[in-house]
Write a structure and sequence with these properties.
By secondary structure, the protein is mainly alpha-helical. About 65% of the residues lie in helices and about 5% in strands. The protein has a two-stranded antiparallel ribbon with strand order 1-2.
Amino acid sequence: MHDPKPKSLSAIPSKGIFFLEVLVAFLITKLPFISIPFKWFESYFHEISHGLAAIVSGGMVNQIQLFPNGAGLCFTQGGFAPLITFSGYFGAALWGYLIFLLATWRAGIRLTLGLLGLTVVASILFWARDLLTIAILISLALFLLLPLKFDHSSWLNSLLRMLGLMIILNAMTSPTVLFGLSTQGDAAKLSQLTWLPSWIWVIMWVAFSCFMLWMCWRRVDDNKPQTV
């Protein structure tokens, strides 16, 4: 007798659904105004990755700052500078993959949204200092926490998977603006810290984001019917 339990716990997308979600995620990242809140997510996970790298390497976080255009800053003190600088784009892509991975677990969708929302709330309490950053982080927290009011989770899984994909896609394209910048940006700073050309770091970040997207593809269920 077939046991339906594994399917009820799984929200792994089929190939068709995965391609559709990637397409929708890509289009959203290119839309004026509509893409801005999702750029905030990538910027937030970028900056918090700098902060976590600082903490792990013995430093501390003084402040995280986010801007309306999707840019951000993380002010740290102490820690291992090369690791802290490298971790921004690297961490954003990794966060995107982890969010996608957790969104393939149907039973854990509410827990995942709750933990992500509480992470943003904690960032407001400990690291946000200006009203603009606080307002942006509150909007991100609401985006994550408000869906918990809904009973049905299938569309929540799809929404969260697309959020993870958008973070990865933004992490893939954002470093490319650093090509040719020799005095500003994470790549330029790493070049000063390590003596490696800045373009090498950009390629490493883009390649890692592509790898994270491929890892998402690896989660696709080849035999699953074409439904969400």
